[in-house]
Each structure stands twice: as C-alpha cells, then as structure tokens.
What does this fold into?
Amino acid sequence: MLIPINRSLKIGFPLVMGLVVTISAAFAQTGLEKLEITVATPGHFPPHYSVEPSGLPGGFAIDVMNEIAKLANLDVTYRVEKNWPTSHDALRNGTVHVIPNMGITERRKKDFAFSSPVETFAVSYFVSSDSTRFREPQDLIGHKIGVVKVNVGYALLKDRKDVELVTYSDLPPALFGLLAGQVDAIAYPEPVTWKFARDAKVSDRLKVLSPPLIEIKRGLAVRKDNTELLARLDRAVVTFVESPEYMKIYHRWWGEPVPFWTVTRVAIAMGLALFLSIATVMVWRHFSLLRVNRRLEAAIGELRDTSAALQKSEENFRNLAEHIREVFWVGSPDWREVKYVSPAYEEIWGRPRQSLYDDPMSWAQSVHADDQPAMMKVIMERVENDTTVAIFPEYRIIRPDGSQRWIFARGFPVQDEDGNVVQIVGIAEDITERKLAEDNSRDLHAELAHVSRLSNLGEMAAGFAHELNQPLTAISNYAAGSIRRQQLGTFGPDDTAAAFELVAEQANRAGEIIRRIRKFVSKEGTETGPININASIIDAAALMRPDAEKNDVAFKLDLPEGLPKVAADTVEIQQVVINLARNGIEAIAVAESELRELAIRTEVLDATDVKVTVTDTGSGIPDHVSKRLFEPFFTTKEGGMGIGLLICQRIVQGHGGNLTIAPNGTNGTSISFTLPIAQAGE
It folds into this structure.
C-alpha cells in the first residue's frame, strides 16, 4: 500500500515551522536536489509504526522520518508492509529505499547500512508479574524463552545451549505465549513491549528482569550500495536529533527522553558511519553473492528445521493428550462444536468420544440434575464473555452403569493476533477419590470434636453433679416435708398443690441441666444455619458456671442485644466457647491475681462478622508456649490431650472465621474468634 507523504501532514505546527524552514534553507544552500524515495513501514508495530483508521501510517518512526525528509530534501512515499520480514525483503530487493527506526545489530549490519542512531533502547527479559521463581536473568537457565524470529533477541540467544528458545513471528503471539504459560520469559525491546502491553491492558501482568540483555540503538536502514542516500540521511539525523522538534516528537510518543546524543558521540558515529560506508563499497561486490547464497541456505535449513520441529511438537502434544488421565478437549468459542477430545473421556464418562463429536453438549446430559443449573450458568456466562477463563463448579456425572463420578473442569480461551477468540481448550479431571478423602476427613474431624466434648464433659462432671444435686435435694426435701405434715394432719389440699408446684419447678430445673449436657455431647451436632450467637453463649455459660464457682471465678457476660445472626453450627460453636472458657478458668485457678474474672463479649466487626472474645485474668501465656499452641498433642496440662485449641481453630476456620490469641494487658489472655454474619436466605 503506497501512501504519499503530503496526505499524512495535514496538521501544521506554526511554532516549529520556522525552525524547520531555517534548517531546510541551510541544506538548500548545499545544492541538494530533491530526491524521491519509498519508505517501508512494517505494519502494526506500535508505537513506532501503526496504521490509522484513515489508512495513513503513523507512529514515532513516521514523525521522525517526516522531519528528516524535510532536512534532507526528500520526497517520501510510504509503503505499508505486512511485518518486519516483508519489510526487510522489500529493502533487499530495492522495492523501498529506507526502513526508519530499525534496531542496529551486528546481524543486520551484514545486510544493511545504517544512519547515525535516532534512539537507544534496552532489550530485556519479561516474565509474568506473579512469578517468584525468576528474579534475575540467570534464573532463566534451563527454561523456555520466547523470541521473535527477526528481532535482536533471537540473534542474541540463538547460540545459547543453556536455555530453550521458542520462536514466534511477531510480538503479540510471543506475549500471549508468555501469559498463557507456553514460555517462562520473552526477550524483546522494552519500549515496544510496554507500549503493546499497555494498549492490550496486560501491563500489570508483566515485569522486567534486571540487568537488560543488551542496549540497542535504532537508525535509518538503507541498502549498503545506496551511499548517497545514506550520506543525506546521516547529515539530517545528526542535525535533527539535536533539535527541539526531536525532543517534542520523542516526548509525544515515549515521554521525557533520556539524553543520549553528545557532540563526542555524534562525531564518533559520523566517523564510524563514514568508515563503514567506505569499507562497504570496497567489499560489497566481492561478498554480496556469497552472502546471498548463505542466506538462502540458512533460510532453507531454518524452514526444514521449523517443519521438523512443528511435526515433533504435534507428535508430542498428541502423545501427551492421548495418555494423560484428565480429559483434554478443544471446542469452538460458542461451545457448539468439539474439535478434539482425549481418550480419557471414554474412561471417565463411560461414553464413546464419537458421541461428543456428534452432539457437543451430550456430556452435559450426564451431569447430575442437582448440578446442571450451576453448570449451564457458567457456560452461558462464558458464551457472552468468551475472553475469560471458565472455572466450573465441582459437579457430579452419572455414568451409563449408574455409578457416580465427581468432576472439576476448566476452560481457557485461545485468541489470535487480533485478540479474537478462535477456540476454547479445557481440562476435566476426575476428583472422585479426592472428594471421598474430604468426606473421610470431615468424618474424622467430627469424631475428634466429639471426643473432645466428651473429654470436657468428664472434666466438668463434678460440677455438673453438684449443680444437678441441688434440684434433686430440693425435690427430696419438699417430698419429705410434705409427708411429715400429712402425718401430723397439718397438710391441706392447698398445701398439696403448692408442694407439687415446687417439686415440678425443681424437676424442670434438673431436666434443663440434663438437656444442655445431652445437646453438648451429641455426636451428630446440628445443621449449620443462622443462629443467635448470644443464646448459644448463654447455654454454654450455664454449663460452665459450676466449674467457675468451684474455682471461685466470677463469670461476666457482655452480650449486647440486637446482634445479627451468624451462619454456624450451635454445638460446634458452644464447644469452642466452652474450650476457651475452661482454659481461662484453669489459668485463673493457678494464678495469684486478686482479680479472678472470666468475661465473654460479643460485637459486630466491620458489618460482615460477629466477634466473640473470651478474656481471663490469669498469668498469661509464655512466649515459648504461645508459639506451639496450635500444634497437635502439645499441652502444658497434666493429663491433657493437646487437641482442644487445634479443634477450636479448625471449627472456626471451617465456618469461614479466624481465631487469634493476644495478651490481656499486663496479665491474662484474650482469645477472639470471628464468625460471618448470615446472609439473607441462608
């Protein structure tokens, strides 16, 4: 596509034009005739090159080339090439005369001549921002590094044996390969990579390893035999990079530039350019044919190697997919076509793969009826927004033989260079054994918690016996007194009713004590649901009061009214409260403090949780003990099991809360735990 320069310069800059005219006039005095040239731009390579909606080329390189053309008295026509390789070919065969802002490398110097530099940039390693394995370049030894075939990163790394190179045709697929996990890092110029990443809104997913691989200069590339054009461009470049207009263009595309050019560097660059120009003219004819032959041989060899590597990669992929235990599948973005599914589908689903090719949604017919609504919701969300990863909820399938399997599946979008989703790939894993192990673990945890409650009950038995003895003694006394009065003839009908009321009252009191004990030691527990945390604490405190009174400990409850309900299991939460309260009572019992008080307080925390705090006035917990409180079977109590606090912690965490321990001022300990507030409908 050829685009005249005068169509791309419709917007003027009055302040700058004066300076440009002055410089142009200076060149005009040298007697330079206007020269028509064609300039190649390698398609979309922002911010150096881009094609605007109008079809005109734009970018940093275009703005720089336009200004240099004015200074060198050049009439420029732009030719938009597909990419870097086609741009290089166009310059080699003479279709174009210049490629602006090409990286100056030793490899490219063999093919082209370059003007003095117009920019310096760093070629660095980019890795995923969440990677913790790679902190410096040497950490990449033995790992996969992505490079672009015609970029300097490939030239710098192609001979290294300690890394595995993965080549790409351009930056977008290389960057996608990094984000998709195909490679561990990519080696590419920093400014271009950051610009592309910002435009693609993935810059937060990248980080750079220091130091850089190399620092490269960019210049205007011409054929080595075009020495007259090179001389014109070089004089214009040297003048332009020192001008205010260059700084404005650089600032427009990159921000404030780091000064690079000095008089000394310009002089050295001009001297080197002059030397290279003279040397190139002298040796070009002798080596040109040999160089072309080598390039052809290398290109044929690379094509052969690439074809073999592609075939090997396909074989490796098929071998992997055919032998993994998980189901690997490839489908269309709308989920209506299955392009490939691995043999594991037949083993896990118990259905032939052909049935899935014939009816891509036939797998969903195996999903358990209770799990189908959640599954279809995820699929519909992915169809509407197909650029996100689909994480399916764990679901059950019913095999043709009636057996049941648990499945965990994920789907990942695959995008082309333009960001369009072209297919979905996914993995489905049979997690039946894991689910069975989780069920067994829950059963063991429940059994351990039940053992802990029985242990607590045994330790509190004396207190329960004392408290239960009080209503039983009262019943006995009322009955004996009534019998004596009846024998004496002083027991009337009204006295009989009153006596029975007193006996019934004490019997109910004894029954309430037994009810609380039976509920606490119940093996099954209760269902998790919205509960009144204050009521549960009051019931737990009633079980603890005999133990507290026995040890002369004052029991204080600070339970504000109107607390929201929490999502919890009543028995398990009472077990936590009793465990923490008993620990506090035991700590106070052996302490020498005059203040002997145990307090339980509840409060709302951040409008999302209810916080329960158990505070004692004991002697506190030594540092060497506090570090081991949650270790299994660690205890400082004679005859203790060492599982109480561990069970409390796991119960709280199982409810979605946290348990913390802190000193209570100068003496004693405060243990707090949080429980999530029950949501509407729970």
User: Anything to note?
Assistant: The radius of gyration is 41 Å. Confidence is low (pLDDT under 50) at residues 1-29. Residues 34 and 73 are 5 Å apart (CA to CA).
